Amino acid sequence: MGLDVLRSAIYMELVLYWISSVKKRILYSAVRKYLLMIGYLLIFWLFIRTIKYLFLGNMDFLKSLCWYGFYIPMLFIPLFALYLAVCLGQPEHYRLPKYLYSLVFPAVVLCLLVLTNHIHQCVFRFENGVPSSDGNYYYGWGYKMILAWLSMEVLIFFVLLFIKSHVPGRKKRIWLPMIPLGVGILYVGLYLSGISFLRTYAGDLTVMMILVILAICEGCIKSGLIPSNTGYEELFEATTIGAQILNQNKEVCFASGNAKQISENVLEEAKNGPIDLGEEQLLLAPVRGGAVVWCEDVTDIRCVLKQLEANAEQLESSRSLLQAEVDLKKKQSKLDEQMQFCNKITEYTKDQIDQIKYWLENSKNEQQKWENLKKICVLAAYVKRMSNLILLCEESDFLPAKELEYCLRESVENLKVCKIAVSLSGKCEGVLKKQDLIALYETYEKLMEQILGDVDAVLLHLQSANRQAVLKLNIAGNTTCLSRVRDIAVAGNIQIRKRIQNQECQVQLYAGKEIGKNERNDM
Q1: pLDDT of residue 514
Q2: At 499, which helix (H) or strand (E)?
Q3: Which end of the chain has fewer CB within 10 Å, C or N?
């Protein structure tokens, strides 16, 4: 009996070792779950088998229950194998369709049919109708149903296993689990045929079936039909990366097929950083229990770096050209802007510039030259102040009214050179629209140029407020002067009122204000 217990313990230890290896090798949780359930059922099978044959003695009824209990793992192991095959190739958190759980119902019914065989004897029929675990019996229709059900599940399992496997050469690999299956079928057939030799020397059907089931499952794992977390040594050796795994003593534990021999001095240097080996680079990284050393081909990387450097130089050259182009455009834009100012100034002062040029070229004698220079001073003051106003207008649509006063004061000062009695007074506040300010100053200049040779005295009074301005002029001169005042033309939106009486004339220029016809007194 001691030897039989030891034998059973060895069988159980074998199955437990296989269960432990499954936990390590199979990463896919669904597949691992069903393999472990198969393993636990095998342990249960061995346990009740040991209890039946070694510990129950003459307790026939309990021995019969243990015998019938064999069919619990026999019925559920193929079912779990079928579920395992369905899960292959599915996502990590895949769940079986609900209709597949209905397969549990026939298995439970058949299991109950076996467990209650003492009542109906549909599975095992005993001689004289007396149930006995050690007596002679023959198989009933229930047993045939169980065999048919088990055969169908095993067939479906292998068909699904073949269809869902994506391992190269699966037609050859499928034979690895098929061999123990064939041995098991042959053994069962010979056992059921009643060969005395087989039953005498290899008659432990339970142990034989457990070993066959273990062999089938392990064959599926080894062949790759069931994916496993193994084969690292072969994979590492076949990799194209020249790598080595070292232990703490710097001894090579694993090496790929194209790994290079590396001296200890080089390994010490590699701890501080990558080492250049020409077309390759040696790298070292610590891992638990040692280190991994590998070589990387840096030829392509260096080609890319050279190309990047060339591209960078080309981009720098392009950037310089673009910067030069931008600077040139800025200069051109500045020149264009200056030309616009010049053209605008010329537009407003063209008549004065032409008149200055004429007077300079047509001075017949010294006296006339001095007279023309006096007039030129008046025109030059206008050209200067108008140019300044045009530049200021580029910055804002409104200008301080004081700018108009500054223009008039400079023009008035130059009138004194022509021996004209002139005075300016007034009060300027707020701002004026730039077009109104320019038009008012332009109209004043036209008036002064008309009467420049015939006027004796001019009194000016300027007022500005609320974006409106009024320039009042009292002019004293000869008849020619007064007649020219009548013909004065205004610029822009300037409104004018004139009153001429005897040797005097009153002129009022309005900017930013409308006056009606009844307010005008033109004599």
Answers
A1: 58
A2: strand 495-501
A3: N
